[in-house]
């Protein structure tokens, strides 16, 4: 009697239906412990001021039990625990449990964490560390280190092709008063909002960077002094008219600016910065909320 043959059928699941194993972490991109990585390997991670927190953020603006991160398979969420100042994700106070997505920015007090999730968490972490060498964690514009590299590069280019190069230094007026009146969290919010307002009006080839504290630098390749002054005045008006609101309070914000343009072929970056800074001081001394060139 002939032997019967049976065909074995193997069901292969679609790749898209398979569970993807991804590691996740929070990386400090602004505040103390800059660059530190906290792996999210447990079901719950407590963030707060208490020494018993899994991630301790020892600041007055942080509650003892501030927020909680929950891991449920591939779903990772953040929940505010009734903190005094709230938990902020991507510039928005969260009202309820929120699912975190790769690249989300989580602000607890004055500390900003970046949420990263990747099949190769170490590679993602090192990419983020590299990014931190060029970008200011709070305002998300270039930092001073990047600016100093850029101004050397643009000065060399200006000399080579005999093209104009201008620098504008921008400074928020009475910033200490803002901090003293509304608190440092409000000051941080003003810095970030001001940076976003000005950056939205810059060209792709411009370099806009946080120079230090409440001071910013705008490097303008192929723009002469008159053009730079015009752009600085436009930015000043934008900030003056912009509505800055923090915790329901309207905060009046203005800024002053100093403009300098390369005058001689062998001019150094320190000389260009010095002249822009002198003009900024002149604008401040003349009553603030103005541009000096």
Task: Please characterize this protein's 3D structure.
- This protein has helices at residues 121-132, 144-161, 175-182, 184-199, 225-241, 269-285; strands at 23-30, 37-39, 44-48, 55-56, 67-72, 75-80, 87-89, 92-93, 98-99, 105-108, 111-118, 165-172, 207-212, 215-221, 244-246, 249-251, 255-261, 291-292.
- 30% of the residues lie in helices and 29% in strands.
- α3 packs across α4 (184-199).
- It is of the alpha+beta class and 293 residues long.
- The longest helix has 18 residues, at 144-161.
- β13 (207-212) and β14 (215-221) form a beta hairpin.
- The strands form four sheets. A six-stranded antiparallel sheet has the order 2-1-11-10-7-8.
- The chain is globular.
- It is built from six helices and 18 strands.
């Amino acid at each position: 009697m002939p032997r019967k043959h049976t065909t074995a059928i193997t069901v292969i699941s679609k790749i898209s239906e398979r569970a993807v194993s991804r590691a996740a972490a929070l990386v400090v991109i602004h505040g103390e412990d800059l660059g530190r990585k906290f792996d999210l390997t447990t079901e719950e991670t407590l963030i707060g001021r208490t020494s018993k927190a899994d991630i301790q953020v020892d600041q007055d603006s942080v509650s003892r039990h501030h927020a909680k991160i929950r891991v449920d398979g591939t779903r990772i969420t953040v929940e505010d625990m009734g903190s005094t100042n709230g938990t902020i994700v991507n510039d928005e106070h969260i009202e309820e449990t929120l699912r975190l997505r790769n690249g989300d920015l989580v602000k607890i007090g004055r500390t900003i964490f970046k949420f990263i999730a990747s099949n190769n968490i170490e590679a993602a972490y090192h990419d983020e560390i590299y990014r931190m060498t060029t970008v200011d964690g709070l305002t998300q514009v270039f930092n001073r280190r990047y600016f100093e590299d850029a101004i050397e590069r643009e000065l060399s280019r200006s000399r080579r092709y005999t093209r104009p190069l201008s620098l504008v230094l921008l400074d928020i007026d009475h910033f200490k008063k803002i901090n003293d009146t509304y608190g440092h969290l409000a000051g941080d919010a003003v810095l970030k909002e001001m940076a976003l307002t000005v950056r939205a009006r810059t060209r792709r080839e411009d370099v806009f960077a946080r120079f230090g504290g409440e001071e910013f630098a705008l490097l303008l390749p192929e723009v002469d002094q008159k053009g730079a002054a015009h752009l600085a005045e436009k930015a000043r008006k934008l900030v003056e008219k912009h509505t800055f609101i923090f915790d329901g309070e309207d905060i009046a914000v203005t800024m002053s600016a100093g403009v300098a343009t390369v005058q001689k072929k062998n001019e150094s970056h320190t000389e260009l910065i010095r002249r822009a800074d002198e003009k900024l001081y002149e604008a401040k001394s003349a009553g603030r909320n103005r541009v000096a060139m």
